[in-house]
Write a structure and sequence with these properties.
alpha+beta, 4-stranded antiparallel sheet, two-stranded antiparallel ribbon, 31% helix, 21% strand
Length: 160
């Protein structure tokens, strides 16, 4: 039951408990209780909007940064990742397999701000051995949503 609710909310966080109840055939009070419990248990971390910043005057610069690290003795990569994800420029931080250890999605107002983040903050962390920075030139799809191009209407009908 909770998986079905989570999929509905992940697709459209604006869906109300009443709408979810109609879609799942469950009582609205049960849906509300399950959502509140999922929030409390940090299963639902955040509700968010996906914004096409290219259509807003305050455009952003996005960069994909691969980071090579020396793991720390007791904590491995975790404490280093925590230092990095606490920087406001770091939007997403993943531990990954391959040549590099961390993948960081960084966002800033200018290329210079991203360059400063890499050269003044990341490179000063002792465990950082090297980085590769790639600037995002155009976003086509983000978090399952098409940013550029046409998208079919995919909302489910709401039965009241």
């Amino acid at each position: 039951m909770i998986k079905e609710i989570l999929k509905i909310l992940q697709n459209d966080a604006h869906t109300t408990s009443k709408q979810i109840a109609a879609m799942t055939g469950r009582p609205s009070t049960e849906v509300t209780r399950l959502i509140k419990q999922a929030e409390k248990d940090r299963i639902i971390l955040k509700y968010k909007a996906i914004v096409n910043w290219d259509k807003v005057a305050d455009a952003q610069v996005w960069a994909l940064i691969e980071v090579k690290l020396t793991p720390e003795k007791d904590t491995g990569f975790d404490s280093i990742a925590e230092r990095i994800y606490r920087f406001p420029q770091a939007r997403t931080v993943y531990l990954v397999s391959g040549t590099y250890d961390l993948f960081v999605l960084a966002v800033g107002k200018t290329n210079h701000e991203i360059a400063d983040f890499v050269s003044q903050k990341l490179s000063h962390i002792e465990a950082v051995q090297g980085t590769v920075t790639q600037f995002v030139l155009k976003r086509y799809k983000e978090d399952g949503e098409i940013v550029e191009g046409k998208e079919e209407v995919k909302r489910q009908p709401v039965i009241l």
